[in-house]
Amino acid sequence: MLIALLSCRNTLELYSQEIKNLAMVILGHIEKALKMEEMEIRELFEDGIQMMRANYYPPCPQPEKVIGLTNHSDPVGLTILLQLNEVEGLQIRKGSMWVPVKPLSSAFIVNIGDMLEVKKKNFVLGLIRYENSIHLSNCLII
């Protein structure tokens, strides 16, 4: 049992480091897209706190009875989400409608969080803290 737990810990540590590397690559692309100085954004997050959470959402035989999370924004720089099953639990807001995000195998969903508020030459990326702001409108699939 102990050997299995240590093996799991090593796997999670490796996965965590790879996700951090991916986040740094994404932030680098954001810098380039906004024509910012190299490392201008990345240096803000490079030594920051990284959190990992695992949720399991089994398929529901009666989806109309599901009670989900309320509209929210993530209080982080980036949320990198890996959906492992075909459950369409994540929705983005498009105009006044909520649209389900279809899980794609071998793809991550990247949500831009509240802390990644970048302003450069009237170009704004991320959320400017509105009341009841909804991060899901900033969802992009890579």
Keywords for this structure?
single chain; 142 residues; alpha+beta; Jelly Rolls; 3-stranded antiparallel β-sheet; 2 helices; 7 strands; flat; disordered C terminus
Write up what this structure looks like.
By secondary structure, the chain is α+β, with helices and mostly antiparallel strands. The chain has one domain (2-141): B-lactam Antibiotic, Isopenicillin N Synthase, Chain (Jelly Rolls, Sandwich), CATH 2.60.120. Helices cover 25% and strands 19% of the residues. It is built from 2 helices and 7 strands, in the order ααβββββββ. The strands form 3 sheets. A 3-stranded antiparallel beta sheet has the order 1-4-7, with no helix packed on it. A two-stranded antiparallel sheet has the order 2-3. A two-stranded antiparallel sheet has the order 5-6. Strand 5 (118-120) and strand 6 form a beta hairpin.
| Number of discrete domains | 1
Tell me the distance between the termini. Answer: 37 Å
How would a textbook summarize the main sheet?
Answer: 3 strands, antiparallel
Whole-angstrom Rg: 17 Å
Task: Please give the count of helices.
Answer: 2
Helix content, binned percent: 25-40%
CATH superfamily: B-lactam Antibiotic, Isopenicillin N Synthase, Chain
- Topology pattern, helix = H, strand = E: HHEEEEEEE
Shape: flat
| Average pLDDT | 76
What would CATH call the class? Mainly Beta
- Can you tell me the CATH topology? Jelly Rolls
Poorly predicted runs of 5 or more residues: 126-142
Number of strands: 7
Structural class: alpha+beta
Strand percentage lies at 15-25%
Spatial sequence of strands, sheet with the most strands: 1-4-7
- The CATH architecture assignment turns out to be Sandwich
